[in-house]
Amino acid sequence: MEKVNVAVLGATGAVGRTMIRILQERRFPMRSLKLLASPHSAGKVIDLGAKTGIVEEFSPAALKDVDLVFGAVDNDLVEEYAPLIQRSGALFVDNSSAFRLEEDVPLVIPEINARDIRWHHGIVANPNCATILAMMALSPILKLTRVKRMIVSTYQAVSGAGMKGMDELERQIRDPSAAPEVFPFPIAFNVIPQIGDFDENGISAEEWKMQNEGRRILHDEALQVSCTCVRVPVYRCHSESIYVETETEVSLDAIRQAAEECPGLVLNEAPYPTPKECTDSDAVVIGRLRRDEACPHGLHLWCCCDQLRKGAATNAVQIGEWAWQNGLLKKGV
Ligand SMILES: NC(=O)c1ccc[n+]([C@@H]2O[C@H](COP(=O)([O-])OP(=O)(O)OC[C@H]3O[C@@H](n4cnc5c(N)ncnc54)[C@H](OP(=O)(O)O)[C@@H]3O)[C@@H](O)[C@H]2O)c1
């Protein structure tokens, strides 16, 4: 099969840098790799292992001959650039939340709904990192029964807010009196129960994404998701405490067995996963699997995942791989 001309938009950011590493690690069939960012980064040199790459400013001309664009920039830029990418004919795999709930844009976790990529119209959206972690963690249960309801508390790393989030934690660890600029309160030695702005009902932007994305991925309009999203002073790797109510009763042993057949998922009950040990790995690791004593169909579990990898970059690269393998690149308008 023909190799692909790839561009990473946001190549200097936390997700973009991880994406470049993953494209190399997975030996993505690239003919060429363009590194695109803001005018401020044009000319910067990025280490590509055996060679280096030069960052270019994003422009329609920079998209000439590109087949596949991996997006790792904020929503406002995506809204401006997406029509230009679509017009170029390249497939746009986007990490922002700009198109995640658009009806004609597939929202994809390849291990769960790769086949949705088939009906893309030039854009495929990567789900929110906390959504990817939760859906992957539920995959062994979903092999056995329907999940009716899920209640999640997240423990999200500062890299979820990009390079600037990591810089702020570093700064405040060195100087705890350093004023917050990225997060609403100091993040060092603290936890903050707010990720994004609150709506009129007191639901944060991150909670809103998580509440709505799972239904599209699972094609289950009746799935009920409630969550509280919390920022914690961890550099990398999100964790979640998840409570689910299933349609039928399933045994813990059946779930353990099903977990062995779920790609990308690892069960760790010796004794449980922590974000530190899951950093820089693609696996979603679950543990602390247990019954809820008060509800016969209730289950609890704990899970961790490097959200820069499987929660963003790896998931996007997997989408690109599936599209390439199935001849689904170049379908822009
Ligand atoms: N961080 C995560 O864990 C995570 C997980 C899932 C999804 N996401 C989403 O992924 C996207 C990127 O997040 P991030 O965490 O990587 O952010 P980040 O570290 O702040 O990186 C932002 C990137 O956007 C580029 N950029 C800024 N202005 C630009 C412009 N005018 N034209 C072209 N590029 C421009 C920056 O380039 P310069 O360096 O030149 O400014 C940088 O490469 C966001 O939509 C985010 O919501 C993030």
Automatic annotation (TrEMBL):
Chain sites annotated for binding phosphate: 100
Listed pathway(s): Amino-acid biosynthesis; L-methionine biosynthesis via de novo pathway; L-homoserine from L-aspartate: step 2/3; Amino-acid biosynthesis; L-threonine biosynthesis; L-threonine from L-aspartate: step 2/5; Amino-acid biosynthesis; L-lysine biosynthesis via DAP pathway; (S)-tetrahydrodipicolinate from L-aspartate: step 2/4
Domain Semialdehyde dehydrogenase NAD-binding: 5-120
GO MF terms, alphabetically ordered: aspartate-semialdehyde dehydrogenase activity; NAD binding; NADP binding; protein dimerization activity
EC class of the enzyme, as a word: oxidoreductase
Protein name: Aspartate-semialdehyde dehydrogenase
Record's function text: Catalyzes the NADPH-dependent formation of L-aspartate-semialdehyde (L-ASA) by the reductive dephosphorylation of L-aspartyl-4-phosphate.
This protein's UniProt keywords: Amino-acid biosynthesis, Diaminopimelate biosynthesis, Lysine biosynthesis, Methionine biosynthesis, NADP, Oxidoreductase, Threonine biosynthesis
Domain of life according to the entry: Bacteria
List of residues binding substrate: 156, 231
Gene Ontology biological process terms in this record: 'de novo' L-methionine biosynthetic process; diaminopimelate biosynthetic process; isoleucine biosynthetic process; lysine biosynthetic process via diaminopimelate; threonine biosynthetic process
Binding sites annotated in the UniProt record for NADP(+): 12-15, 159-160, 307
Keyword Oxidoreductase: yes
EC id: 1.2.1.11
Catalytic activity, reaction form: L-aspartate 4-semialdehyde + phosphate + NADP(+) = 4-phospho-L-aspartate + NADPH + H(+)
Record-annotated active site: 129 (acyl-thioester intermediate), 238 (proton acceptor)
Subunit annotation: Homodimer.
Short name of one Pfam family: Semialdhyde_dh
Family under the similarity heading: Belongs to the aspartate-semialdehyde dehydrogenase family.
